[in-house]
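Example S7 (structure tokens).
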């Protein structure tokens, strides 16, 4: 039992360190971030103008949990107020992630 707890604590610390490193890289590259959705942050694009990358399903879950929205309301809110917002060249990228390893950007899947 103690060993399992230590393993879990180590994994949590490692995930926290990775999240901190990602946030630091986003800040260094002056990327815009979506306030309140750090849990949905999954990465950063590569290139001359990097952008923060978020998992849409996780954002929907956060809206349902934190803002007490129905799933339908959260999807509508995301589409019109978050995913549909353009706030400049460093606007975050929002992707659909499936459990099968397929990602979607807009209507186009890629593996």
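Recovered sequence:
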């Amino acid at each position: 039992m103690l060993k399992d707890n230590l393993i879990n604590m180590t994994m949590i610390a490692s995930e926290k360190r990775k999240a901190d490193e990602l946030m630091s890289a986003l800040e260094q590259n002056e990327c815009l971030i979506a306030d309140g959705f750090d849990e949905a942050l999954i990465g950063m694009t590569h290139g001359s103008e990097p952008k923060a990358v978020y998992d849409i399903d996780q954002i929907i879950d956060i809206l349902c949990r934190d803002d007490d929205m129905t799933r339908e309301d959260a999807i509508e809110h995301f589409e019109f107020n978050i995913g549909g917002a353009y706030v400049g060249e460093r606007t975050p990228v929002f992707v659909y992630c499936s459990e099968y390893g397929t990602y979607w950007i807009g209507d186009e899947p890629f593996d």
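Notes on this example. Residues 2-110 form one domain.
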